Structure formats: structure tokens, C-alpha cells
Amino acid sequence: MSVEPRYLFVVSMDVEPDYTALYEIGSSDVPASDTWAEAVERGRLASHVRPHTSNRSHGPAR
Predict the structure, then answer these.
(1) Residue 53 main-chain phi, psi, to 5 deg
(2) What is the rounded distance in angstroms from the CA atom of residue 36 to the CA atom of residue 25?
(3) What distance in Å separates the CA atoms of residue 59 and residue 55, rounded to the nearest whole number?
(4) Which residues, listed in sequence order, are joined to residue 24 by a DSSP beta bridge?
């Protein structure tokens, strides 16, 4: 059995947010893809949640 590498994106800030989203993805190139950009605009996140956030941060961790 082989284990594929996975990448985990985490946030490190002085003030931790109330909510955190972690995504396990197969490649560190995924967040830069057009497909990812389209997906984050679907649903209620873009119109109902994102306008109320003030401490968004993105970063990779391995």
C-alpha cells in the first residue's frame, strides 16, 4: 500500500477566528486553479458569509 502526499492549508494568526475551514487536497497547485476559483464563488459563501469576515487568511502547511 502506498501513501500519496497530501497538503493541508492552515491559518496562524494572533487572534484565532471563531471558525476555521481546512481542506485536504491532493496538490498544492489546486488553490491556484480556475476550477478552485469557480468553486469558491458557488453557494452562499461569496454573497452571505464573506462580506462579514475580517480576518481571512490563506496558507499552506505540510
Answers:
(1) -95, 145
(2) 11
(3) 13
(4) 8
Does residue 62 carry a pLDDT above 80?
no
Rounded-to-10 torsion of CA 24, 27, 28, 30: -90
Which residues fall within 8 angstroms of residue 58, CB to CB, at 6 or more apart? 9, 11, 31
Is residue 16 left, alpha or beta, with left meaning phi > 0 and alpha meaning psi from -120 to 50?
beta
Res. 13: pLDDT tops 80: no
User: Whole-angstrom Cα distance, residue 32 to residue 41?
Assistant: 14
pTM across the whole model: 0.52
Residue 26 main-chain phi, psi, to 5 deg: -80, -15
Distances in whole angstroms, Cα of residue 25 to Cα of each of 5, 32, 39, 47, 51: 9, 12, 14, 24, 26
For residue 39 the three cell numbers come to 468553486
